[in-house]
TrEMBL record:
Species whose genome carries this gene: Palleronia salina
The name this protein goes by in its record: Uncharacterized protein
Length: 140
């Protein structure tokens, strides 16, 4: 574990983070965190805290964090979907091998409707993509 603290701390929240500058180089050797900005990851907005102005170093650190955060969230989104595929496979196995009639009745309608909705969305998206590709490849 590194004894050196990072220069910035990002307290993650919905759609972004609060940005703090970390300071432990004071007489009491206490860790002080001074909020310098609020970041909105969706629209890229960076609001300095209070009357503060952010320098190039602050903005570079914030921009780097935003890029890393977007990559992390994109990875997690796909990972969550792949986990859903695993859960569906496990559910099928559970229904086939262990589920009682009462358990099946409890999950049947919500699961079937969710699966039907997902299938409709997937088919529509695939069809739209195929149609766009055909239109793009048609000679004029």
């Amino acid at each position: 574990m590194s004894l050196e603290l990072p220069e910035y701390f990002f307290r993650v929240r919905d759609n972004g983070a609060f940005v703090f500058r970390v300071d432990s180089d004071n007489r009491q050797r206490r860790i002080e965190m001074d909020q310098i900005a609020v970041v909105n990851i969706r629209n890229g907005e960076v609001k300095p805290n209070g009357e503060r102005t952010l320098d190039e170093h602050d903005m570079a650190a914030i921009t780097e964090w935003m890029e890393e955060r977007r990559a992390t969230l994109a990875y997690r989104e796909i990972d969550d979907i792949l986990r859903t595929v695993d859960h569906l496979n496990q559910t099928a196995h559970w229904v086939q091998t262990k589920a009682t009639e009462e358990q099946i009745d409890a999950i049947l309608n919500p699961l079937l409707l969710s699966m039907h909705d997902l299938r409709q969305v997937l088919v529509r998206k695939r069809t739209d993509r195929i149609m766009r590709e055909r239109e793009a490849n048609e000679p004029e």
